[in-house]
Amino acid sequence: MRLTPEALVRDHTVYSCVMGSRAFGLATGSSDTDRRGVFLAPTPLYWSFEKPPAHVEGPADEQFSWELERFCELALRANPNILECLHSPLVERIDATGHELLSLREAFLSRDVHRTFTRYAMGQRKKLSADVRQHGVPRWKHAMHLLRLMACCRDLLRTGRLVIDAGDERERLLAVKRGEVPWPEIERRMARLGEECDEAAVHTMLPPEPDRARVEDFLFRVRRRSAVQPGPYDEVVERIVG
């Protein structure tokens, strides 16, 4: 049994959503549509020497998908991009397995988000600072997204809920994207958000570790179901958007 990467995405996607500015409530007329998805490689594919891919880029522009197990593995590590995919308000396609995956959103959350989100933010901040040293200005769009991510982390640690929409901060963030906010002010905002994240981490209600056993049980059931009943789990795929 062998399937092309394109066929895996086309025929075995269990969940797909729109990410980026459109999901963050920060879209403008020129914004791209970034699509992210999760596909379930049929279990028999793992019985051959050539294993299915852990991820697939495309086939459409700005589209990227992960195999379910890899996606869960990254989510358990509190990967910011993966966790945010699970909370996109713009779901384009979902089946019963996808619904099960979304029901596990809280199982992936833990205090590790403080480490992973802030580490990612620090890396992006260094790149922005390098841009300022080299060109005199940062990449404003990246600065906007970094501020949103840091606020998202702070609120997650405070409330235990991951909300990726910028909400009331939309206009302030878009002003950053337009280059209307001086870089020193952006640096001050980043420093303040970093302190707020650290403080929230001390008092967070999030558990010390994700619920790995619950996620592993889900993967086991899905793999077994795929082995017993090869092919798409649902004859009808629910399309939420588009």
Keywords:
242 residues, alpha+beta, 2 domains, 11 helices, 5 strands, 53% helix, Beta Polymerase, domain 2, 5-stranded mixed beta sheet
Domain unit count: 2
Q: What percent of residues adopt helix (DSSP H or I)?
A: 40-55%
The arrangement of helices and strands along the chain is HEHEEEHHEHHHHHHH
**Relative strand content:** 5-15%
Our Rg estimate from Cα atoms comes to 19 Å
What's the total number of strands?
A: 5
CATH architecture of the largest domain: 2-Layer Sandwich
Q: Whole-Å distance between the termini?
A: 32 Å
Strand order of the largest sheet: 3-4-2-1-5
Task: Please give the largest β-sheet.
Answer: 5 strands, mixed
Mean pLDDT: 93
By secondary-structure content and strand pairing, the structural class works out as alpha+beta
List the total number of helices.
11
Uncertain regions spanning at least 5 consecutive residues? 232-242
For this structure, the CATH topology of the largest domain is Beta Polymerase, domain 2
Structure notes:
- 53% of the residues lie in helices and 10% in strands.
- The protein has 242 residues and is an alpha+beta fold.
- The chain has two domains: 5-109 and 211-228, Beta Polymerase, domain 2, CATH 3.30.460; 112-203, no CATH class.
- It is globular.
- The model is unreliable at 232-242 (pLDDT under 50).
